Queue: 2 jobs
Job 1
Amino acid sequence: MARTPIEVDAATLPPLGMTPEQFLSRYWQKRPLLVRNAFPGFTTPIEPEDLAGLACEEAALSRIVVHHRQADRYELRTGPFPEEMFPDMPHQDWTLLVQDVDKWDLDVAALIQAFDFLPRWRIDDIMVSFAAPGGSVGPHVDQYDVFLLQAKGRRRWQIDAGANPPVDFREDSELKLLKEFQPTHEWILEEGDMLYLPPGVPHHGEAVDACLTFSLGMRAPSAAELVVELADHVAERLPEELRYADPDLAPARDAHEIDAAAIGRLRTALGSLGELDDAQLRDFFGSFITRYRSAGQIPGPARAPTRGDVEARLEKGALIARHPFVRLAWARDGRGARLFVEGDAWRMGIASARALCADGRLDAGDYGALDEDGRQAVIDLLGRGIMKLGPVPRRRQR
C-alpha cells in the first residue's frame, strides 16, 4: 500500500490537490499536508498597510511579536496601535497579527467559500499576519486545525510530524512557546501555497522576506468548556424548587460520612445533566457554538423597524444585510428546522433556515421566498442589529 504523501501539487485540482472526501479521510485531524499551488496565481486582497490600519482600530484584536535574537526573547505587544508607530518599526524580526480580518474585509471573507467542504460553524476566523524579514512568533503548537495560506512574499515553515513530540512550554515568555522543538520537515512557501496542520503538531514559521500569511483556524472548544456551558444551559432551565432531597433518610451511622445513599440521591438531583436527549443537546450546542469566540458585541438600533416599514422599503429596492460579526447555524427539528443566531434560536422551515444561513444579503424576492416564521425571524434580527436594512440604491443620473 502506497504511503500517504505529505506534499502535493494542487495546480490542477485546487485548493487541496484531491477531492474533499480524500482529504478528510486521509489528512483531516490525522496528518499535516503541504499543498503547493493551492490557490494558483493568488493575489492578496489586503496589503500590509491595510492590515496596519486595521490594527489601529479600537475594535480590532491585534498583537505584535518582536523577536530579540541575541537574547532569544519574544516580546508581546497588544493593540490597538498608534499609526505613527509603524514607520519606526525595525526592518526585521517582528510580526503583526490581526484576528477576524474576514469580519472586516469582504474580499478576505470570500476565501472561506473555498473551504465549504467543512461545516461553516466549525470555522473560527481568518487571522492575517504581516512579518518583516526574520519575523516569527516562535515554535508553538495549536489545539485546533489550521490552514496557513501564503498570501504575499515567502515564509519558511518547519514542523515536527513525529510521534509524541515534546510540548512543554518555556517559562520565560508570556507566549506559549515550546521549550524544545525538533523539526522533521522544512519548506519555503511561495504565494498561493498552503500548509494544513491538524491539532497538536508543533510548528515554526519565519519570514524569508516581508510577507503576509492568512491563517484559517477552526473552532474547537475543549471538553471542559463544553461541560461548564452545558451545566449552565441546564441550570437555567431547572426550577428553583428542584433540590437535593432525602425523604428516605435513615439514621446516620456516622454523622460526618457521605454515604452511598447520599451519592445515589446526588445522582438523582443531577439527573438532568446525564439524561439529555438529542433535541436538548442540539439546542444547547446550536446556542453555544454560535456564541463561542464571538468577534465582538453587535449593537442594536436606536429604534427597531416595524414589519410594515421593512416590507415597504424592500419593495422600493432596499436590501437587508447581515452584520459581519454574526455566527449562525441551523439544525433539523422534526420536519422543520431551528435557526441558531448568536446563541438564540428561531423555528422555521428547512428551506428558510438554509437560505438565511447562506445569504448575507436579502432583497424583496429573497425575503418573500421565506416562510412566515423565517420572515418574522428577519424582523426580530433587524430589531437586534444582527441584520440591517440598507438604503434604497440610488439610480444613476444619465
Job 2
Amino acid sequence: MELLNALVEKGLRRELPTREEALAVLATSDDELLDVVAAAGKVRRAWFGRRVKLNYLVNLKSGLCPEDCSYCSQRLGSEAGILKYTWLKPDEAAAAAAAGVAGGAKRVCLVASGRGPTDRDVDRVSRTIEAIKERNEDVEVCACLGLLSDGQAERLRGAGADAYNHNLNTSEATYGDITTTHTYADRVETVQQAQAAGLSACSGLIAGMGESDEDLVDVVFSLRELDPDSVPVNFLIPFEGTPLAKEWNLTPQQCLRILAMVRFVCPDVEVRIAGGREVHLRTMQPLALHLANSIFLGDYLTSEGQAGRADLDMIADAGFEVEGAGEVTLPVHRVDPAAAAGGCGAQGSAGCASHGEGEGGGCGPCGGHAQGTGHGAGQGTGHGDTAQPAAAGAARTDLVAVRRRGTGTDLPPNA
C-alpha cells in the first residue's frame, strides 16, 4: 500500500506526515488493519525496539473536583460512585508507589483531583516525591496536579520530579464542548511551564468523546508542535454518572488505527496506551503493543484495570519485554540536546515526545482520565473479552468497574 510505505519512510526520518495522510490512516478499512499495524510497527521498533515501559498511577486525592470536564468521574456534579478521599500522607503514597515498582513499573505517576495545586499542595507533593525516592532512588516520578501557577513547576523539579503530565485531550476547536471551567490555552500554557522548568512533558488525548477524525488529527498535530516526550492515548470510558456515559463510539479496530496514526505523526516519542485499553481493545490489546511502547500497570485513578500479572503475561506472550530501570526510554537524539538539533521532524518541525501521564486538571491523569476499565484482578481482560456492541444510546455498566482496592482503601493494590 503506497500510503503506508510513504508513512514508514517518513517515520524513520522523523518527518511529519501531511494531514491528509494522517486522515487516510483513520479511514483505512478493517481488511487493511493488519497492514496498518505492521507499517506503524516498523516505526515503533526502529525507535524503541521491543521494549515496553510500565507506568503506575497513585491517586493522591480522589473526587470532589470543581472542574466540569465531561469525561471525568471526579468532575463537578459527577454521580459516579467512586472513592473519595483527601490527600494521602507521604508515607502512604510512597507505600502505594512501592507496590507498582515491585510489579515492574519504571515510572510512578502522582495524580490529584482539582483545578490546580496551591503552594501548600506543592509542598505536600514535594514531600511525597522525596519519600518515594528515598525508597526507590531510580524510579521516575511524574506529577499530574492540574493547572500550574508561576514557579510551581520549578519547585516540583527541585523536589525531584522528573516529568509533568497535562493532556490536551481534544482539538482546540471542540475543547469548549467538553470543558467550560478552563480553556485549551490554559492546558497548553501548563505544559509549556513544565518544559521551561526542565521537566519532561507528558501530554496526550482522549479518543471516543464524539469527536471527528479531523479533531483527532488536529490534536495529535498540536501535540507534535508542543513537543512532549510522551503522549498518552486514552480511550474514553463512558462512566455512569457523567455527561458522556452513553458515548460508546469506539471499536478495537478504530483504536488500533488511532494508535497507528499517533505513531506516524509522533514516531520517536513514548506513545502510551492509557485509560480504556482493556474496555475498547479487549482481546486485541497485544496488537496495540506493536504501535505503543508504554502502558499503565494495574488499576487507574477511579477504575479497575487488567490484573497486573495479566499485563506482564500479555507483554511476554506478544514477544515484547519490560523496559528495565537502567534503560533509557527515548532515542538518543531526544535525550541529548546536541543530537536533537533538528527536533523531531526531518526539516526542523517540532517533535511530540515526553514522559508522564495524567489527565490535566488533576482529575484524570496519565492514562486513566478517571474512568473504568471494567476488569477484576486475575480476570485478564474481564468482561471486555465478550463485550457486544452497545445499543445506540445505551450505557455499558457491565464494562466499567469502579476501583475499590489499593490507594484509599485497606485492600492490596493491583500491581
